[in-house]
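Worked example
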Amino acid sequence: MSSVRRARRAVFGRRSAELPVARARGPGPESNGNGATPLPAVVERDAPAPLVHRATWLASDLLLLGASLPDAATGPLDASVELDGTMHAVRAGCLALGAPSVPAMHLLTVGRPGLRLGRRALTLRRGGIEWTLAPKDLERVTSDLRTFLRTVLAPLDARTRAHVLEFLSWAPVRHPGSREDPVLHRSLLAVRQALRERLPLVRSGGAAGLRLHVGVVAAVDDRWFYVRGWVRTPGERVARLTAVAPEGGRAELLPAAFRHPRPDVQPAGAPDDPAGFAAAFELRGPSALAGGWVVEAQLADGRAAEAPAPDAVTDPVLVRDRLLSDLGLEQPFPGTAFLPGHVHPALARIQERIRSSVEVAGVEDHGEQPEAPAVSLVVPIGDGAGADLVEIQLAHLAGDADLRAVEVLYAATPGPAADRLAEQAPWLARLYGVAFRLCVLDRSVPPSMAVDAAGEAVRGRRLLIMHPDVVPVRPGWLRALTRFQDRTPGAGVVAPRLLYDDETIEHAGIGFRLPHRSPLWEDAPRLRGFHRTVPAADTPARVPAVSGACFMVERDLFGDVGGLDAAYVAGDLAVSDLCLRLAVVGYGAWYVPGAELYHPHLPAVETPLAAVAARYDAWLRTRRWGERMAEAEAGTDAPAREVSRGHP
């Protein structure tokens, strides 16, 4: 018996378990373009028949085959199944193992979403050779995953097993129909546990002098992750730091990882690298399992160890809060490495993930709604804004004839305030004679996201965004805004004069300023703190930006430029970002003094995390619009600039 045959028997079991495929055939006809191909006639040819040694299921619709293909079978692997007399393509992948013990061994993945391949004949084609697996023949060589791993893959050498892990970690990408199947991800975890070359655990000793700890793993999405921990290597430098996903995907963290001091584990003045590390990284394939993460570390002399990581944080809000809280790792703020290189890319993705997951849970109409409203008034109601604010606002809107043709929509995030408003909404509409709609979202989000999500439910040609603590001084304010926008070409956004309850100005347009020794541009509200009768406040003005407390914009234009950008975490600066984007495409922001409303600014408790979010938003706006804000600040009329500086 040859050494190759002995090796194959050792790896694949008895020869009787190997399946010579029915017939080798020539290439069939080309696809007709719709994924279906007429059944080809069998063409006999002299070609060695491929052997399928073992098969197992990675998921209910994804098959893993261990096969030996002849040398002539080269090139891409195509697969198809017969459905209703036609051949339909299925996704397939092939890896030539090239291990010394099994030189002709190949690993194949074949799958079609929702289709149990074991019940239909499977046709494979590679390099001009075509062969078919009948269901009964496939059943003869199919085993459970553990048996497949033990008999087919475990005997391979370490380098080949690493190639197998990389190949299979791509299965969710190669077969996107199975990407969300938890069975596939659990199968890949079992494969990784069986095949990965384990390193010494740090907690049980590890490499001499090497200490490694992983404190946080957070899932930004299914391919982007964030990890933080520390590695201590007295007198040595870390040559490799690798995150290993549960499904076997790997990401090298060095040299991009941000290194920061950890005085608690690293004595002051130690000659080695800073102990702390933090990194946002991307896997080549998706990972959906929270548990099973591992981080490997290797020194320059080859010594290596690994440490288990805690379960990944998957809730997007918790991930966002973790990223914000870790901004303090780099001082002074903003830094030049951690924020732009790690936190910002991760936060941008997590914010989009949060925004895309927000849905309208329900919309209730209260009162007789206008048939074709020209204006939709959208009022976001957050956790801190209760039904009392809505009632006060409705009381001030009552009696204004202009509001009868306006669609009024309250966009509420879930919570006690939304529950109370839902209970009181019917009699509030009857009591004040103002018809409105109550739109309840399925999760708590900042007002800017609430407006964006509820925008799909409105019908007006114009959007009027207003905070719940804003109330009109007198009727006619809406007519003043719409008439000004109608007669002013290029007026993309119009906003009223906002007053404090002592008749001083809260908003008459917004400029920008760069504080001394600060790299972050700030808002510079025009005329804030002056009495409403100051002459400079009585003239309409084109301004760099307006307040988000009350503004109006054409609905189509709002959508064309992307609405309120979800990248801003706190959301307060999203409106000025909108104004700057509109300016790029030729539309201006205008202050309209003929419309007056009160905005008393109710006191709010600012948490440390909210303060960090506001600073991040300021950094993001400066990064995007710093040059344009400098131009706007330089072009501001002199009296307004002086007033803004004198009354911050």
